[in-house]
């Protein structure tokens, strides 16, 4: 029965297509990160575990979200935000783990988690509780509140504590890795507001006529790039640092 | 990434939220936000031209500097009275060069001709983009006033459909050449490409007033203010932000008051020209001597490298 449903995916439905590929890609990435834990030095195992958890949690959610989408044709908003509420703070944990050796304190970890949860909760209120027909005031106010959290994470990664710690780590690999992750936050995370602005009353909805149906496509692409990409950057740092240690 | 680029990106995110949907916050709010930002950041970046110039040219008497500065302003006012269209075109060209110059003020070791060409085509690319994306809004506004009726020529789509890709192609080409010659790092080249794309995207996505104000206050004015602050600190003329603020305040305040008075005078018809033309004249006559001072400043600074 499930196979029949799978075969009935319309060829011209990129959203359904990305739900399926997103699910498989996340699952494959998790397997990869979990297996590769064995090939890195002890201090990097936790970072790879977190990378695997991020993609693993996302894969499970994508499994449910693709079914929800196929059955209803609607945005699985609640499922998406449940996924993000777990995975985005975990991405912030990666920043902490990478800079821990350079002296990162747990206060940094909590500040990043708090900022990311702030960003997501405000985004959820803005998206899920938008009045029928769309209210620009509602989406602007909650979009603004959410963006404050995003800007805090962005600042911390580019100029704040994380950037300073990476500089003090005396490891060009960590410094470069943190810079790559900061680029993910700057460019990769910026795809999410595109989805948000497609909501009724949002800018892309009003100005360009993009609809909520476009939201999922942007979110699926962004999720695949950010979650798997984030993990691969961490993996690359772990492998290079391990090689350095073993050569010494 | 420079902190000013970070400010620009964050500003763009926030501006998109508030001003992306133009039906939500109208022209009045846009003008108010733009005025506040230009008064707070835009005007101050040119308010210590005298200090910068006299510090770099110690043999020039103060009176001679002021005489030259005000003569330039006076000559430009005369040009506006007799040749308004060409004065406007000159203002656009001058602004293009000035914006490019501040963007690449820290690029050294590049031949003079390449750097000047880059400054010019980069600035032309962004200004042409700003006009091209909003020509439909600009032409009706400028056509409404009799003293601006010849100006829409400068905003025509036919002109900018050629100028925009040409200048952008040349800017990218020169940047690529400078990168190939190893005068800028790969990360700087990548950042410049990213930023140029982002400036165009911000101009395309935001209303013209907000888009330009965002660029002007963050990537241009704040950047120049930071350079001025660092320079004066290096010369031990100031030691903290408070002292810098005290230097910026007098002429910023005078400019703000003077500009507001003239605009009100135009509003009450004491001056028989449109508000837009008056604003253009005011902005351009302060831009000309400021660009001259900054050009001298950047030239002297580049000789140190």
Question: How would you sum up this structure, described in words?
Answer:
- The complex is a heterodimer of chains A (248) and B (305).
- Chain A is built from 11 helices and no strands.
- Helices cover 81% and strands 0% of the residues of chain A.
- Chain A has one domain (2-247): Rhopdopsin 7-helix transmembrane proteins, CATH 1.20.1070.
- In chain A, helix 2 runs antiparallel to helix 3 (42-72) and helix 3 runs antiparallel to helix 4 (77-99).
- By secondary structure, chain B is mainly alpha-helical.
- The chains are: A mainly alpha (248), B mainly alpha (305).
- The interface between A and B is medium-sized, with 22 and 16 residues.
Q: Can you summarize this structure?
A:
The complex is a heterodimer of chains A (248) and B (305). By secondary structure, chain A is mainly α.
Task: Provide keyphrases for this structure.
A: 248 residues, Rhopdopsin 7-helix transmembrane proteins, 81% helix, globular, B: 305 residues, mainly alpha, 79% helix
Task: Report strand % of chain A.
Answer: under 5%
Largest beta-sheet characterization of chain B: none
What is the averaged pLDDT score of chain B? 90
Count the helices of chain A. How many?
Answer: 11
Question: Which H/E pattern describes the elements of chain A?
Answer: HHHHHHHHHHH
β-strand amount of chain B: under 5%
What's the architecture of chain A in CATH terms?
A: Up-down Bundle
Oligomer: heterodimer
The overall number of domains of chain A is: 1
Detail the poorly predicted runs of chain B: none
One letter per element, helices H and strands E, the order of chain B comes to HHHHHHHHHHHH
- The helical percent of chain B reads over 70%
- CATH top level of chain A is Mainly Alpha
User: What is the largest interface, and how many residues per chain?
Assistant: A-B, 22 and 16 residues
Number of domains of chain B: 1
Main pleated-sheet profile of chain A:
none
CATH topology of chain A: Rhopdopsin 7-helix transmembrane proteins
């Amino acid at each position: 029965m499930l196979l029949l449903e799978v075969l009935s995916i319309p060829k011209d439905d990129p959203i359904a297509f990305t739900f399926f590929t997103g699910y498989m890609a996340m699952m494959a990435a998790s397997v990869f990160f979990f297996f590769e834990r064995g090939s890195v030095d002890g201090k990097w195992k936790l970072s790879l575990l977190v990378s695997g958890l991020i993609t693993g949690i996302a894969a499970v959610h994508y499994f449910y979200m693709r079914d929800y989408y196929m059955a209803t044709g609607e945005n699985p908003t609640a499922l998406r935000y449940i996924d993000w509420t777990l995975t985005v703070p975990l991405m912030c944990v990666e920043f902490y783990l990478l800079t821990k050796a350079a002296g990162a304190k747990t206060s940094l970890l909590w500040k990043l988690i708090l900022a990311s949860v702030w960003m997501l909760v405000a985004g959820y209120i803005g998206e899920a509780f938008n009045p029928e027909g769309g209210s620009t005031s509602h989406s602007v106010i909650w979009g603004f509140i959410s963006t404050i959290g995003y800007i805090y994470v962005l600042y911390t990664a580019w100029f704040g504590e994380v950037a300073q710690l990476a500089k003090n780590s005396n490891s060009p690999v960590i410094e470069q890795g943190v810079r790559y992750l900061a680029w993910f936050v700057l460019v990769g995370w910026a795809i999410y507001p595109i989805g948000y602005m497609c909501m009724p009353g949002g800018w892309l909805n009003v100005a360009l006529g993009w609809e909520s149906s476009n939201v999922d496509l942007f979110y699926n692409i962004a999720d695949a790039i950010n979650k798997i990409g984030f993990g691969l950057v961490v993996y690359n740092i772990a492998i290079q640092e391990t090689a350095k240690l073993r050569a010494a | 990434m420079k902190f000013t680029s970070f400010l620009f990106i964050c500003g763009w995110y926030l501006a998109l939220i508030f001003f992306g949907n133009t039906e939500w916050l109208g022209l009045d709010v846009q003008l108010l936000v733009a005025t506040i930002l230009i008064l707070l950041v835009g005007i101050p970046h040119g308010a210590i031209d005298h200090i910068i110039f006299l510090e770099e040219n110690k043999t020039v008497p103060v009176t001679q500097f002021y005489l030259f500065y005000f003569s330039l302003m006076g000559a430009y006012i005369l040009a506006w009275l007799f040749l308004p269209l060409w004065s406007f075109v000159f203002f656009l060209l001058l602004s293009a060069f000035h914006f490019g110059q501040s963007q690449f003020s820290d690029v050294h070791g590049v031949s003079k001709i390449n750097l000047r060409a880059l400054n010019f085509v980069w600035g032309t690319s962004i200004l042409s983009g700003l006009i091209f994306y909003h020509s439909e809004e600009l032409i009706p506004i400028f056509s409404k006033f009799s003293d601006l009726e010849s100006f829409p020529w400068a905003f025509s789509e036919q002109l900018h459909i050629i100028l925009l890709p040409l200048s952008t192609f040349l800017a990218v080409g020169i940047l690529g050449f400078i990168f190939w010659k190893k005068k800028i790092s790969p990360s700087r080249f990548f950042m410049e490409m990213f930023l140029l794309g982002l400036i165009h995207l911000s101009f395309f996505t935001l209303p013209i007033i907000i888009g330009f104000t965002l660029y002007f206050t963050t990537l241009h004015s704040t950047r120049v203010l930071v350079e001025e602050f660092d320079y004066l600190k290096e010369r031990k003329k100031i030691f903290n932000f408070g002292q810098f603020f005290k230097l910026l305040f007098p002429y910023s305040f005078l400019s703000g008051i003077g500009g507001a008075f003239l605009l009100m005078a135009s509003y009450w018809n004491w001056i028989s020209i449109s508000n837009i033309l008056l604003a253009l004249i005011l902005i351009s006559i302060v831009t000309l001597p400021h660009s001259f001072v900054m050009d001298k400043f950047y030239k002297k600074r580049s000789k140190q490298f």
